[in-house]
Amino acid sequence: MGLRQIYRYLMAAASIAGVVYLFVISFGGIRQFDLGKFSILFENLFLSVVSAYLLFFLALLVLRYAMLILYSFMEHLEYMMKRRQEPENNFHDEASLPMITLVVPAYNEGPVIQPALRSLLLLDYPNYEILVIDDGSSDDTYEKALAVAREDHQVTIRVITKKNGGKADALNTGMSAARGEFILNMDGDTKLSRNTLRVCIRHFDDPRVGAVAGNVKVLNRENLLTRVQALEYVEGLAMARKAQSFMRAVNIIPGPLGMFRKSVLQQAGGYDHDTFAEDCDLTLKLLMRGWHIAYEPTAVAWVETPSRLLDLLKQRYRWTRGILQATRKHSSALWNPRRAGINFFILWYMLFEGIMWPFSTVLGNLFFVYVGLQYGVVIFLFYWWLQLTILDIVAATYCVIVEEEDPSLIFYAVVFRLFYITIIDISKVFATIEEWRGTAMTWGKLQREGKL
């Protein structure tokens, strides 16, 4: 069932309600039926329905937070126990470590490509190469990458330039040209923690693991907007991936850091070009094929996030539409739980976060503003905000402790709920509506400021 079908059902329900209303007016008699009382009755009914829905949504939200904290904590305990029981390196010696190819797709990454590449030369791993795919950049990305490649390094750096075809095409080019049996895909603006390759490769001792997702964190914590995003990445992304990893079913391998078996990538056909969230689409393709996807919290990708509101909204708009596109591609799993297995729950969870959550928070804000102005009970709006803020503070406190993050991030939970998430949710609502309408869109690349 697509969004258009849901829309038709809603329109059908509205039509039935209209017929019932006309029936009451026509056959009940205007004299015997007080339209004023009916409008009051209708308004009360509407307010009751919305109130009941918001209570239902709040219950789901509390359940969501509780489950994520529970499963992420269980994953954390399991992870710590495994690391205590096994040696630092699962392989017997350095010579047996498999080769890894780091694929760096780059399009107009001139301000950041050189520091990003030089940081990759410092990784603690004896057997890897760096493969830069210049996707037809119009700036000096290719020349700057080539200059680093020509320097004297122990690590091989190869630079391939091609006609612009999009990130998915660049990653597929890297997959074809990679010499390693494992591939780490990343972004051109990403800085990896030194231990990334060693800690990720250990997960592939399990033959069922097809890919490993890394931990993405914000590097440029320079203003209020980027600091709130730093909290969002820790609370909204890391906690969710850690909980999903307990079931080996991470639903999105992040673009800045994802390691794959090359054979698995090839079997899946690489990245597709028909969504604006190629990383989410590929992850779902792997899950649908039965592969496990793990999460490695100590493999950190430091990224530059938008420092201006307009850039942030463009990014989240694209993310939302891309995730909806990827979900629609695999929507058959939504209606076949027996065959889809855990993928059934993954897709419904994605729809909850992508559609129901933003629509419900926007609806809740509008509802309580209306009730406050109409009935003089503005305190309800404060209670609504307070309940959501308490959830954010609890989750933020837990995540900061587990991630050993900056404790000051906890205080940004208030700012996060006060204005940040409302603006983001409005952007998501518009993105959902325009995706349903089929409105054309472009990639909307973030302009890097070179802060790596």
UniProtKB/TrEMBL annotation:
Keyword annotations for this protein?
A: Glycosyltransferase, Magnesium, Membrane, Transferase, Transmembrane, Transmembrane helix
Recorded GO cellular component terms are: membrane
Against InterPro entries, the record matches this protein to: Nucleotide-diphossugar_trans (IPR029044)
The family database entries (Pfam families) matched by this protein are listed as: Glyco_tranf_2_3
> Where does the sequence pass through the membrane?
7-30, 50-74, 346-370, 382-402, 409-431
Q: Which reaction does it catalyse?
A: a 1,2-diacyl-sn-glycerol + UDP-alpha-D-glucose = a 1,2-diacyl-3-O-(beta-D-glucopyranosyl)-sn-glycerol + UDP + H(+)
Q: What is its EC number?
A: 2.4.1.336
| GO molecular function (one) | glycosyltransferase activity
Coiled-coil ranges per UniProt = none
CDD domains registered for this protein in UniProt = CESA_like
Subcellular location(s): the record lists:
Membrane
Sequence similarity? Belongs to the glycosyltransferase 2 family.
Give the protein's recorded name: Beta-monoglucosyldiacylglycerol synthase
Q: Which organism is it from?
A: Undibacterium pigrum
Classification from the root reads: Bacteria, Pseudomonadati, Pseudomonadota, Betaproteobacteria, Burkholderiales
